[in-house]
Amino acid sequence: MFNRILVPLDDTNTSLRALKPAEAFAKATGAELVVATVLFAEVIDANERAEALKDRVKRYGVEPDRAEVRVSPVSVEEGIADLIDADTLVVIGSVGHPHTQKPFGNVSEQIIHSRRDGLSVVVGPKVDVDNYTLAGPVFAAIDPAAPSDELLAAFTRISQELGMAPWLVSVVQEIKVPAGIGGLPGYDVPLETNQLRQLAHRVEARGTGTVNYEVLHHANAAKEVNRFAKDWNASLIAVATRERGGLSRLVFGSVAIDIIRKSAAPVLAVHTDRTKK
Asked: Which site among 48, 68, 176, 257 is 20 to 30 Å from 97 CA-CA?
């Protein structure tokens, strides 16, 4: 179970947008809602600064359980490392920058770039945070031909802990299998539908309820995922991120970035390491 919902804040209004979705997650799970900021120089009165931070959050309409002000000359993630573990859900506000190297535009990006364990949610610029609820399902945008175990595990956990109905969604080129081949029924069945059905059964075996699935066909994968999720009033969309070119820095693929920028729901960004053997 999540024991903490953590919202890292800087001095931008963008970072504040993570607060109301984070509050919804905290209420759904019973976890502690913690807001934190990291300064790069010593403060005269840390307690005073923490109270000021808490007041700032309250003015935004959210009541945190705790506010933390930390000092680290190294990095944001180093400053709040003790607040982050596998049972902490980190919720981050994003400006949805179109370039893959800087998708967030504030210091909170360092956390999601470096985090390998635990789950992180990105609240993009199209999310109506003032009216956000956990009324709809959680979607995982997945490649059925090369599924990510990390994405499936995170998708399973988040749907269970937040009590949301799980959906698997894929946007692919349609490939049909001739009737009767491989023991399939006597009519053409899209191969990707069978792959996605098998993945749904794998997720159900992890202890979820029934996993719905849908194969979509469109030239723009991100646009179609967002459209379908909006039609179903999705509460969350899970996408895979990756490392590229051996860099230690996490890089979001173009589809993930487009989903974050245009999604009406927050996005669960799941780190996957394609370099693992």
From this structure: 68
